Amino acid sequence: MKNQKLTSQALVSKSLLAIAVGAVISTPVFAQEMTEQQAPTVTSIADALAQGDVTLGFRARTELVDVDGNDVDLTSVKTRLTFSSAAYEGFSTLIEMDDVTHVSDFEGGVGDPEGTEVNQAYLAYATGATTFKYGRQRILLDNQRFVGGVGFRQNEQTYDAFSVTNTSLADTTLFLAHVDNVNRIFGEASPLGDHESDTYLLNGKYTGFSAGTLSGYAYLIDNEDAAAFSTDTYGVRFAGSQAALGYALEYATQSAAANNPADYDADYVLAEGTYKLGAVTVAAGYELLGADGANGQFITPLATLHKFQGWSDKFLGGGTGNISGGIEDVYLTVGTSVGGVKFALNYHQLSSDDSDVSGMDTLGSEAGFLVAGKLAGVNLSMKYSNYTADDFSVDTNKLWLTAAAQF
Question: Is 8-406 CATH 3.40.50.880?
Answer without folding.
Answer: no
